[in-house]
Every structure is written in structure tokens, then in C-alpha cells.
Amino acid sequence: MKTALLVLFTFLASFTAFSQSIKGTVFEEKNGTGLPGVSLLIQGTNMGTVTDSDGSFSFDAADGSYKLVISFIGYTTKIVPIEVTSGKSPDLKITLSESSELLSEIVVTGSRSGGRSRIDSPVPVDIIPVSQITNNVGQVDINQILTYVAPSFQSSRQTISDGSDHIDPAQLRGLGPDQVLVLINGKRRHQSSLVNVNGTVNRGTVGTDLNAIPATAVDKIEILRDGAAAQYGSDAIAGVINIILKSRTGLSGNVSYGQNVTSYDKDYVINYGKDESVNISDGGTAQVGLNYGLKIGQKGFLNITGEYVNREATNRTGTYTGQIFPAVDGKVVDDQLLGEKGLTRNDFDMRIGNSKVNGGGAVLNANIPLSPNIEFYAFGGYNNKKGNAAGFYRYPNSVPAAVRTNVLALYPNGFLPEINSDVTDISASGGLRGKFGQWKFDLSNTFGKNDFDYTISNSINYTQVNTALNIRKEFNAGGNGFSQNTVNLDLGRKFEVLEGLNVAIGAEQRTEKYTITAGEEASYKNYDVAAGVAAGAQVFSGFFPQNAGSHSRSSIAGYLDLEQDITKAWVVSGALRFENYSDFGNTLNYKLSSRYKFTDGIALRASASSGFRAPSLQQRYYAKTNTLFVTQNGQQVAQESGTFTNDSRPAEILGIPKLKQETSQSFTVGTTIQLANAFELTIDAYQIDIDNRIVLTNNFNDGGNATLKAQLTAANATTANFFSNAVDTRSRGIEAVLSYNTKFGGTQSLRAVLAGTFIQNKVKKDASGKPIIHASDILVQTNQVNTYFNREDMSRFEIASPKNKQSLTINYNVGKLGVMLRAVRFGEVTYWDPTIDPTKPDTWPVNTLTGQKETLDQTFGAKIVTDIAVNYNLTKGINISLGSNNVFDVYQDKHLHSGNVSLGRFVYSRRVQQMGVNGRYVFARLNFYF
């Protein structure tokens, strides 16, 4: 026992012996003041600290020669050699000069060698300095911030799309939300429990709710635009988004308020050919964010963030032109009844725009040194938001005749049902990292959970109204949950091979669980089968008990990552990763990349990799009946569509192929150029082939099959859809960033960044140009391939998101005054209607607005959105900003075909969107730092 204690004491003492204190101050070059929150890191290790509120720092290190990397967003990174010897404590005086997000900034995503500058990275990585950007923009959530500053990233808020109204789906390189991996401080982030099942962009996918992370808590975001499954695991097909939390000390925060001040042509259909816009002020958004950090020991910290956001709804509905009230003696009596009731058609408006959201959260980020070579770290957060959105208006005339009398007794003018969401997101990560001999280690556990619960209000279950039951207007419809726990062990060491070899090995174990919670009985049950009307809460029926339950799976993985500096100019890296899923078997993925520097300012880089994405648990087990509105004979008709699991009996009857994993092959080649420390240019071209893309099929009817009809009836459905591996795709693109930075006149600086992405996403086709669809023999023989995957489905892959996006951002500063001007060009998008044959104009429907035959297809032209902000430093640490997003009040093109307008209600498309349809937004923001 004594021997064991002596060994343990000697082991612990080895970490504290022969250590000295490294201390100093980091100053801002221009005015000589101390810079708080600057990161200092001993190159190739996890040892370091951040500066205090006055720019001072200190931490311990063992004797030796080191290179100290000093970095801060917006400033040029410095690398300072230091010597630590017994009896001598370095006291450093370091100055940093401003930069414009230079290529020399250190990034940690995409490399395990301790971080490289962006110009030295063998793969393209964007750095988004969120903590600085938020001072000048009106956007308050991460999805919208990234949409306007990172051209490869795209997220548009959805409307009339059930749960997707409340969690914004997001894309990287035009691929799916579930094909980009999100990390927080380098650790895997859990996905949302929401499945996008309505007819929006990204239908059938599952993403990560980035807006559950308060922007106030974020220091910067690194976007790796390259396949990285071999490095970080499945889902990293399009790339990786690594959100790095604040670690600075002191108190900072912001208070902002803004709203839409805009105009749009609400009566577009009624006044077709005229532009009679109405003025609107809505969408008021208030945000309060506080961040406080304190130092723990000499190099530890504790940083806490709290944020609250209240966003009011927006509405860009058109005026309904259809029949409102039931006919009397075969005559439409709308005008008469509107007059008698003192109403107008405006009283029957839908709500087409942003949902209302009220919520907030807290985030903690901590680093506590246990010895000079070992530290404990932890981070995590809690977020809750409550949302409210509406569906299609149930006009008195559209209420089924069998229940109309009793429904109208409760809702004389019909009703607009509402979906109320309660979304809770929690996460926690903790671990130990440091050095053991020559090896770096990082042992961690990360847990995350997302719950999405639905309450349906201002609604009714039609099958209750003709019974003696108490008639409900509000329903608990149940919900979904997803949780994930990940254990990681990462080891790394540098070897003196040529100019340096970094070896990293590691293992991961992950457990996932998806749950469906049944709604209360009245939210789903059919109490009156004989009435022949839709059962369950109108707009969103509850989850059935037979679909409720929990589903789990686990996976294990191991990886080897090598990065060799062959010369100071040439680096080659490679990675292999093996993963085993309990439900989909094994996969082995690779990555190779290289960078060669011709000069200090010019480099060429390239990579090749494979990827893998197992179907999410949500895609495997989501099952529910939803009310969809489809066009039949020019009228909107409600249809109860059941989503069944891929291994269900209806799927077997229809011959839906078994669900399997997606696989990918990626290639990237690019160059980085830096001239005179002022001009910087990066250009990267890529190709990503993805096999067996997972889609949510369209709606199959029973086709006269009695067995299938019985299955549908049991689910209160008239049609059925499924998740399936339908097609293969090829994505190609070019991404470029050009920046310029200069100082002049002593107190003036100018920064300009021009960035753009050009995307071509295609479903693979045969020699005749027809899409290659992975359909079963049964679907082919019964002529149902078009129901399995149609033109609109293909358009979602190819043209429903902007095929290109460019942005120009100019920042000018003089003394205490700063001006930001930004213009973002969103490329054209196109809607393809699934019901028409574009080669047969004779079969096209007649446009009721023009009287001419037209295809329902429509291309919406490119639009430029301009933002402007002026900020002024009132005193040291206090800044005020005033500005406007979309200052010229630009909207995407209006619908041209009456079939898409849906009887006047949809002035703008809800199927394809570029930048939303909210118009001009004006804001004021107060920022402070003490």
C-alpha cells in the first residue's frame, strides 16, 4: 500500500515539478491599451490561457523551449519563441495589429496537429468571427448570421410546414442538413428530433438546431468546406461546422430591438396587373444577451452566457379569392354575409411568414487546470423556446358537410388552427486533456438531448362534433425526442520525422435514442367513422399510441490520422476511420489531403475522401398522419397522409426498397494567394458523389389493394409515404473569397471581402437524360415510379435552393465611428410542378389570371439584399449600432401562375425560397464590454 501511494505521489509530482510561470501583457498596437480575451497557446499542446480584462496573463509551463501562439479574432496572429528555465520567469510585452480575418489566422478544424493558419491548411476553412459580426448586423440567430456571411451556407425560414416553422433547416454546399456535422468546441453536437416532412426544401431530412446555441455565447465559427467523415465520423459529407464558445474574462453583452418596416402587394391576385402595396410593421424582435467570464487559477476560466429572444410573427399572406361561406340555394352569398357580419376578406387571412418564438437559454464554458500538464474542461447549455405558427384556414365552406352545422356553431366564421411548439435542448460535455510524457490526450463524454412537443390550439376534431363527447379546441398532440451520448478518447504526438510528423489515434462510442410520445386520445382518435371525415386535431393530428416508443442504436469507431510536413513548404495528411453501427454494420472511410507552398503567399491544396451517413433514427422510425393540402380541379383539398416506417406492412405491399446508408466520394482542389499582406484570395473547386440519397417519397393511395386500404384506414390516412434510398447525386461547385485590408491616415482602416459560391447539384441520369431511380420491380410494374420520386423531388436536389450566392462586405472605420455595408446576391431558384409534363403544352392548365395555358413551373430571379449599419464607440467598452437589413425592401419574385397562388393566399412561394419574404428590417443595438 505504501509503495502504491509513493508511486502515485511521484506520478502527480512529475506534473508540477520544474515548472515556471509565463506572464505578460498583450496590447493593441493602434492605441496601446490592453486586449482582453486574447488566446495564448503553446504550439502543439493544449497549454495556454486567455488574457484578463487589462490584457495581462500568466500560466505555468515546465522547463523547455516553446513557441507561443497569440491569436485574437480581427488581429494578426503572432508566434513568439520563449525559453522557460529554472529561476527565470518570462515577462512578455506583446502587441497585436488589426487584420481583416487574415489567412494567417489559426484554425483548429480539419487538422489534429495543433492548429494551422488558414493559408497553411490543406483544406478550405472559413472563420466567422461571430462575436464581432453581431455588433453590426440585425440578425440575432446563428442560422441567419451564417446565411449572410458564409456563401456556402444557406438557411431560409419556412412557413405553413408544421414543425419546420419552428426549427430552421440549414444547408452547406446545397446538400442536406443531415449531411453536415456540427461540433461545439470540437465535440459532436446532437441533432434535432424534428423530421422535415412537409413539402419544403430539405424535405425528409433531419438537421441540427443551430439556433438553440445563443449567438452571445459564440466566439467564432469555423466552417470546414470538405468531406471529413474519416476525421470526425458520419454525417460530415458536405463539411463540418465547429462552433467555438467564448472563453474571455470580464462582463460583456448586448441589447437589441428591431422590426420589419416594409410593404408588399397583398391583393396581388384581386388586383392582378396592378401594384397596390400595403405598409406593414411586424416581426418585432427583442434580444438581451449577457456574457461573464472569470479567471480560475493562472490559466483557467469560467465563462457563462445568458440570452433571451422574443420574436413576433410576420405575415405576408395574400387576400383569399375563393368561396368563404357555403352556398345558399346554389348561389354564392359571400358578399351578402360579409356585409351582414361586418367583416371583410381580410378577416379570413392566413398567417404566412415567420412563426412567433419566445425563449432563451444559458451556456457554460469552463477550463480548470489540475496541474501544469492536465486540465479539466466542461461546457454545455440549456435552451427552451416556445413557438406559435398557423396552418391553412378552415373556411366555413371547406368544413365537411357531414359536420358543418356543429362545427360552425363553435366557429361561425371558420377557424385558423395553430401549432404551438415547446422545444427544449440540453447539452453537457466534460473531459480531461493534457500531456502524458510525449503524448497529448483528450478523454471526454458529451451528451445532448432535444425534445419537441406539440400543442394544437384554435382547432377541433371533426369526429367529436356529432357525438355526446365534450368538444375540444386545444389538444396535446405528443411529440418527439432525440438524445445522443458520445465518449471520445483522442491521443496525439509529434515525431521528429523530416519537418515533423503528427500522429493522432482515437476511439469513439456513441449511443442514440429516438422517442415518439403519443398525443392525448382526442388529438388522434376517430370517434365517428360513419361521418367519413378526417379524424384528429385539425392542422396536426396527434401521434398514435401504436407509433409511440423508444428506439436506440449504438456505434463504435476508431481512427488513425497522420500529418507529415515533408518540407516546410509541403504537407501531406491522411486519415482512416472504421465505424460499426449496431443496425447498419461496418464502414471504412479514408481521407487524403496535401498542401504545397510555392512561396510564403501562394499555395496549392487538394483532398480526396470517402463518406458515410447511416439513416437517422428519425428517418427509420418516424410514423405519423399529417393533413396535407393538394390541388384537385383547381381547388385546395385536404388529404390525410400517413408516414409509415420503411419496414412497415404498407411499405412491403408497395415494394419500397429497404433503407440503407448513404455513401460518398469527395474531391477538392484549390489555391490560396496572399499579396503584400493586403490582398488575399482563396479559390476551391469540389465534386461530391453521393449514392443512395434518402428521400421521403410522395403519397401512394391504396390502388384498389384491400390489405393496403385497411392499413391506411387504421392510421386515419388515405395515402402513405415512406423514407427510401431513391437516387444518386453529383454535386460540383466553386467557392472563392477575395479580401483586401488597408490602413491610412493614422486612424482610418478599410476592409473589404468579396465571397461567392457557384453550385451545380444534379440527380444522376442515364444516357437518355432520365433520372436513375432506385425503384423496386413492383413500383415499376404498377407504374408508380413517379409517385416514388417525381419532378418536384428532383428540383429540391437541383434547383430549389440558390445555385449561386455572392456577397460583398465593406467595413470602414475612422476613430470611434464605423460603417458596415454588405450586399448579398441570392441566385435564382426554380419550382418544378410534379403534375405536368413540360414537353406537352397542350396538357398544361389555364392560368385563371391571364386566360392562357401555362406550366406551373416557375423560375424566381436572382435578388440582391443590401444591409447597412453605423456604429459608434460612446466610451471605452460601450458601442451603439443603428442599421437596416434589406434596406431597399427587396422581395423574391411573386408567383406567376394562379395554381401556385392558391386562390390568392400565396403571393410568394413557400416551396422554394432565397432569403425569406419579410422585407426591410431596421434595428438598434447596444454593445458593451467591461
Automatic annotation (TrEMBL):
It comes from the Bacteria. Keywords: Cell outer membrane, Membrane, Signal, TonB box, Transmembrane, Transmembrane beta strand, Transport. It is a multi-pass membrane protein. Residues 119-240 form the TonB-dependent receptor plug domain. Residues 381-887 form the TonB-dependent receptor-like beta-barrel domain. It is found in: Cell outer membrane. Residues 1-19 form the signal peptide. Its main location: membrane. Belongs to the TonB-dependent receptor family. This is Vitamin B12 transporter BtuB. It comes from Dyadobacter linearis. The gene is btuB_6.
